[in-house]
Structure prediction request, 363 residues.
Amino acid sequence: MSTATLVQQRRRFWETMGNLTTARPWGSKQAINRAGEALRKSSLSIEQAGALETWRIAHKQVINSFQALLRKRARGKQVEVAQRLKRRFTIIDKLSRYPRMELARMDDVAGCRLIFPNLVALAEFRAGVHSANFKHIRKNDASKYDYIASPTERGYRGIHDVYEYRSRRKSSPSRVCDGLLIEVQYRTDLQHAWATAVEVVTQMTENEPKFDRGDPRHIKLFCLASEILARVHEEKKSSLPTLSDRQLAEEFEKLDAEIGVMNMLLNLAAAKWIDDQARSKHVILQLKKGEGLKLHPFDLELEASTALLELEKEFPEDDIVLVGADSVAEITSAFRNYFRDVGDFLHLMRSGRAELSEVTSDE
Prediction:
């Protein structure tokens, strides 16, 4: 399907939203699941490609609703709020990693991320969202995706909630999006710094610790790093709770000496060309391996969505994402992996390693 055809379909979708009540231009959930299966097999038809893109872009309505709700609750608090629409390439990759997953049930096509200064602020804010009076339906128990209480095996820490979108009024044109899912991520600054470093290494090397792929030493190194950060800075445990402080420090230093991840991160330079005065509400980040980052700012959402389709088609191998925030500063912070900003991670690890060294030297 040509880019022009896809763009025309997207325009027709947004232009006719005001006349829709229950009809979904992408069809049924079963149709989306069949498109997902065809995507796995690289046998997507023209009709399925159109339905799939319409379904994906429709999640922007869900994102807009949630980010407005979350920003209102975050007003006056130290909370960063940002959002993103899942990239087509990432959807394909996730389908390949989870062969039994049905596309219509993929709950992170739309995403909002909240970043807090500490665990107390995170817990208080999340409790307030859980008790809020809105029609959207939380699909998970409060503890199901609590990766702070139960970190993943690779050391990821944070909390996710999945919501099913519900429009406020039956007559609302956004009712067409009822039933679409969105993932809300909660992280502390520290947890976000770790996750950013993992993503940067995944982007810059042939190893992919974010997806448990590649050299297992990279995966282990970030498990050890997560444990150091959790113990020293948040008085918690992560995925290696049985290691003594001495074992933790020694294993990290030995492994990093072998693979040199910390030196690689130290040598990264932050992007210098970003215009701090930019005030675009919608920004496409395009990351090309070996070439760096391109920033595509837009004032209008339709322009951004149209450009996203064109860039994805022209550069299928690039890491391209449509994000939104109130300022460039928020975008560069919440999506700092695209800007290769690992300064916070390096600072936290430096102080964490130093503190562990002091503790173990006294033993």
The domain at 3-214+269-341 is CATH 3.30.460.10 (Beta Polymerase; domain 2). The chain has one domain: 3-214+269-341. Residues 74 and 125 are 8 Å apart (CA to CA). Confidence is low (pLDDT under 50) at residues 13-22, 269-278.
